[in-house]
Design brief:
The complex is a heterodimer of chains A (434) and B (93).
Chain A lengths: L3 E7 L3 H12 L4 E4 L14 E3 H5 L14 E11 L4 E7 L11 E3 L2 H14 L3 E3 L4 E6 L5 E6 L5 E9 L6 H6 L10 E10 L2 H8 L5 E9 L7 E7 L3 E9 H7 L3 H10 L4 H4 L3 E11 L10 E2 L2 E3 L15 H21 L4 H13 L1 H8 L3 H7 L6 H14 L6 H13 L4 H15 L1
Helix pairs in contact in A: 1-3, 1-9, 9-10, 13-14
Chain B lengths: L4 H5 L3 E3 L6 E3 L2 H5 L7 H4 L5 E3 L4 E3 L9 H5 L5 E3 L7 E3 L4
Antiparallel strand pairs in B: 1-6, 2-5, 3-4
One iron/sulfur cluster binds next to α4 of chain B.
């Protein structure tokens, strides 16, 4: 392409589109390059977006036909052993009214397309079916554009925003950040299971477009460091499960077998009974936390979203970190345009903006969380079994004195884990989120 | 437990390119030096299969997750995205 742009954005996901919206609104000449045939065609996630983050980009998104599946009013956390489940449920009237759309489910094929349309309406140019294959650099090594797989492939821009997600062969090739290691990503698979709207309403105790999220931990990941989830959409549920990629390699577990097993679990199968599988997808999550966040800028470029490994595993937040980082990158680009300087000297203020925002504050706070999960395998092996056996003891009513029952409950855990190990677990858990 | 991943991939839409975006750099390494052959297990689409004398690559069903690229201990996979517009095409995501 002959034309020169102010900003070229790689990737039409939440990070790239957030930046495009803000830049286009301010009259910046911006182009977004997306490898899929349409935005979202390559993307999948669990399904929860956060309204307060989206509002910062599109204030009236709910009135603008944002393709919301269900407004989340209830969050469940379940800890599963092979045969049992312990659950904690939080439902709050506030989520129906005051805090409506605090969290809501979407499908990426629809949402990303809608979001990109908002950027286009503001004047951004979106070019799909185009893979960015390399970065263009000048003699001094400054990034001055991108190379694409189109015939008229090269595209020049004053600044490039890398918002190409966690799986980045572009990073591997150009080194704008290190290639990820198997221990720093989770591989997740998800199945979309179709069910009539009324059936979902009834099974999850909701109505009128409201829904439930269920995070699932325990033996379901077959001893591997991972989680599963079941989220409600309007006429389907998303069932997914993932684990650390190096665990998959070591344990030789096949992802599609693991999800099939999950479907048969006695706590899950009644919720998806009679459902029709509609789609099967796979994607990575950046799991390394703060330690794996690269330098976020360089001469002529910035990195946002999953591409910068921004993911809060404890709170299942990624899309909001992507949107916030895209927004802060756009603000930095505006500043650089004002100064007419796109060197790292000016772009470093993106680093400061990120440090001051919840994005890096949260990741820093939870920096010990990834290694906590890695070093406490019992969370995925013996602890769910022990906890279940203990509760079973306490709930079994057969005229055994409670004192005996309580001792048996204690033994159920101690037989699987020493007291010292248990104390260590509690201590490390507290430290990792403190 | 044996699950046919083909039944799952059947649900998905693909725009298959004639040319593969995945290539084994040196097939000798697969059959010689690679003891673990993790590509046979980690791939969510079962793209890599063990034939009698080689590993076959059924790129048509690739879900483009990237796992084989970094999971191959010998970095023996030349991994590209499918050309723009080709490959998997999510309906819901
Ligand atoms: C199983 C799973 C569950 C999750 N659940 C949640 C959740 O419930 N809530 C939440 O907030 N987050 C969740 N996340 C995380 C969330 O999906 C990500 O954090 C978020 O999508 C990151 O947005 P992004 O814009 O940075 O990257 P992406 O959404 O990955 O977008 C990157 C875009 O760039 C395009 N692209 C990549 N390379 C190129 C190239 N070379 N040329 C052109 N285009 C390219 C891609 O096609 C894609 O459209 C989940 C993730 C997974 C995998
Ligand atoms: S893991 Fe790599 S080297 Fe081993 S068999 Fe697979 S492709 Fe070949
Ligand atoms: S990218 Fe993922 S789906 Fe494709 S072949 Fe590699 S592991 Fe399999």
């Amino acid at each position: 392409m002959e034309e020169k742009f102010d900003a070229a954005i790689v990737g039409a996901g939440p990070a790239g589109i957030s930046a495009a919206c803000i830049l286009a609104e301010r009259g910046v000449k911006v182009i977004v390059l997306e490898r899929g045939e349409y935005p979202g065609s390559k993307n999948m996630f669990g399904g929860v977006l956060y309204g307060r983050s989206l509002e910062r980009i599109i204030p009236d998104f709910a009135q603008k036909n944002c393709p919301i599946e269900r407004n989340i009013v209830e969050s469940r956390l379940s800890y599963l052993s092979e045969e049992s489940s312990i659950s904690l449920t939080y439902r709050d009237q506030a989520f129906f009214e005051k805090l409506q759309n605090n969290a809501f489910t979407v499908g990426r094929a629809k949402f990303d397309r809608w979001f990109a349309d908002q950027a286009r309406a503001r004047g951004a140019l979106l070019v799909c079916s185009t893979v960015v294959t390399d970065l263009l650099r000048d003699g001094a090594g400054r990034v001055v554009g991108v190379k694409t797989d189109r015939a008229d492939g090269d595209l020049r821009a004053r600044v490039v925003l890398l918002a190409d997600g966690v799986n980045s062969p572009l990073a591997a090739k150009t080194g704008f950040r290190p290639e990820v290691k198997p221990g720093n990503v989770a591989l997740a698979v998800k199945e979309l299971i179709g069910l009539p709207e009324e059936v979902i309403d009834e099974r999850f105790g909701v109505s009128a477009g409201n829904g439930v999220t269920n995070e699932i931990l325990g033996n379901v990941t077959l001893g591997m460091n991972g989680v599963a989830f079941l989220y409600t959409n309007r006429r389907s549920v998303s069932l997914g499960i993932g684990a650390n990629l190096s665990d998959f390699a070591r344990e030789r577990v096949r992802p599609y077998e693991m999800i099939e097993r999950l479907k048969l679990h006695p706590a899950i199968s009644p919720l998806i009974k009679g459902g029709k599988p509609l789609e099967y997808l796979a994607h990575w999550l950046p799991e390394g936390g703060f330690a794996t966040v690269p330098r976020l800028f360089g001469d002529g470029f910035l990195i946002a979203g999953d591409s910068a490994m921004l993911f809060n595993a404890l709170h299942r937040e990624g899309s909001n970190l992507a949107m916030a980082s895209g927004r802060l990158a756009a603000e930095t680009i505006l500043e650089a345009m004002g100064k007419n300087d796109f060197s790292s000297r000016t772009l470093q203020s993106y680093g400061q903006r990120m440090e001051e925002s919840f994005v890096l504050k949260d990741l820093k706070k939870y920096r010990r969380f990834p290694s906590f999960l890695e070093t406490h395998r019992e969370l995925f092996t013996n602890l769910p079994r022990g906890a279940s056996a203990a509760i079973r003891e306490i709930l079994t009513v057969d005229e055994t004195p409670k004192k005996t029952r309580r001792r048996a409950a204690f033994e159920a855990i101690r037989g699987r884990m020493t007291s010292l190990r248990l104390l260590r677990l509690i201590w490390d858990a507290w430290r990792s989120v403190r | 437990m044996s699950v046919k991943v083909e039944d799952k991939l059947f649900l998905d839409r693909f725009n298959v390119d004639e040319e593969s975006h995945l290539r084994l750099i040196d097939p000798e390494i697969c059959m010689g030096r690679c003891q673990e052959q993790p590509c046979l297990y980690i791939c969510p689409a079962n793209v890599y299969k063990r034939e009698s004398e080689r590993i076959s690559v059924n790129y048509e069903g690739c879900l483009e997750c990237g796992s084989c690229r970094i999971g191959c201990p010998h970095f023996n996979i030349d991994w590209r995205f499918p050309r723009g517009g080709y490959g998997v095409r999510h309906k819901f995501g």
